[in-house]
Amino acid sequence: MLDRLSPQPPDALLAVMTAFANDHSPDKVDLGVGVYKDAAGVTPVMAAVKAAEARLIAEQGSKSYVGPAGNRLFATLVEQLTLGSDHPALREGRVATLQTPGGCGALRLIADLIVKTGVTTDLLIGDPTWTNHHPLLTSAGLTAHRFAYYDTVTAQLQFDRMVAALEAAPEGGVVLLQGACHNPTGADLSLAQWSAVADVLERRGLVPLVDQAYQGLGNGLDADAAALRMLAARLPEVLIAVSCSKNFGLYRERVGAIIVVARTPAQALTTFGTLQMLARRMYSMPPDHGAAIVATLGADPALLGIWRAELDGMRVRVNTLRTLLAAALASEYGDRRFDHIATQRGMFSILGVLGLDAVARLARDAHVYTAPDGRINLAGLPEAAAGRVAAAIRRVAP
Fold it and tell me: Of 213, 232, 262, 366, which one is the catalytic site residue?
């Protein structure tokens, strides 16, 4: 049986991680791996998370199963953070929320839900997008159709082409959208553009699948959820995948959730039961520890306030690094071609000047590591290294 398997190509980003780990230069800079890092180059455990975890360990009396739906206090908190505590869909009982193993688990389970409905297997995905979107979603049986989202050469959103693609999409299809802090580009739609997209979705009977992985790291918790909340208020059905990896720093705990906004309370209840059945058949029960940390934190107003302040600090740091690198690149190149880095949001931007050869030379000659497509993680940039990194980029991409 096993002799029928073929060797798999190595994951390009994991190869970058390995190369960085094996580089012993004191000047090495990791702009590749998509995790938040503080000024010391460490992905920290947030103080509010550490305090909540200590309380949980001291008070938790059982490690029994939590059930396929997961921690219900966690689910309620995620609903409120994502949709807002007074969203009409919540008031009307049209929301079904299920805890999942990370945002990846949420995406895959949503894909299985879409296939289970039997309505469509068409999925529209913007180009470029996060590299794992395609394999996660198509492996469940969905067929991906790309639409233009962002031009990496001109550093411009392709909004008109995006709208034209949605207008031409098969009715009833699903559209993958990123709620805030677009990965890999950092280029988000404005609220006016989101409203125009909602018009098309409503008119064409398309269902949005919103990947909400970075809430709070762009313009703030509520600002980063404004577009998603508008979609959930205007459209009859919305699918949402939530990750707590970035804004709670719980990467290795695998904490995520599915939020489904349905047409009616009855449909929400049926959807909730269907999601539990699909989860039971896939992984049975989600891991509880990380979700219990979030639930413990959210139940204490003091800890919640500390977490919000920490998250604001992370957001300010990333946006400050954006400004620093954009200014350093402007100084090196003598023009404003990289101004978009300062105005984009989230941890990522794509440097369109970096082809595969330039990426390899940047790592080999300057010990600066990026993703193979030239995506950089601004959170991995030491403030003192902005000028040196900009100069290295200029050398490999004149």
Answer: 213
To the nearest 10°, the Cα dihedral for 368, 374, 376, 382? 20
User: Among residues 37, 51, 75, 130, which one is catalytic?
Assistant: 130
- pLDDT tens profile 58-99: 999 999 999 999 999 999 999 999 999 999 999 999 999 999
Alpha-carbon 96 to chain mean position: 20
Residue at 60 is within a domain? no
Single out the residue in 299, 326, 344 at which a domain terminates. Answer: 299
* pLDDT tens-digit readout, 355-378: 889 999 999 999 999 998 899 999
Indicate whether 58 belongs to any domain: no
The C-alpha atoms of residue 165 and residue 124 are separated, in whole angstroms, by 9
Domain boundary among 280, 299, 318: 299
pLDDT tens profile 294-306? 999 999 999 999 9
Task: Select which of 140, 241, 246, 358 is catalytic.
Answer: 246
pTM higher than the cut 0.85: yes
CA atoms within 13 A on the CB side of 142: 32
One domain, residues 199 and 313? no
- The first and second tokens of residue 81, run together, are 């953070």
Kindly report, residue by residue over 269-284, the tens digit of the pLDDT: 999 999 999 999 999 9
Residue 213 appears among annotated catalytic residues:
yes
Whether 57 maps to a domain, the answer reads no
Whether residue 211 lies in the annotated active site: yes
CATH number at residue 15: 3.90.1150.10
Q: How far apart are CA 372 and CA 375, in angstroms?
A: 7
Residue range of the domain that includes 141: 65-299
Task: Residue 74: count other Cβ atoms within 10 Å of its Cβ.
Answer: 26
Q: What is the pLDDT of residue 353?
A: 85
Which DSSP letter does residue 3 get?
G
Instruction: List the CATH number of the domain containing 84.
Output: 3.40.640.10
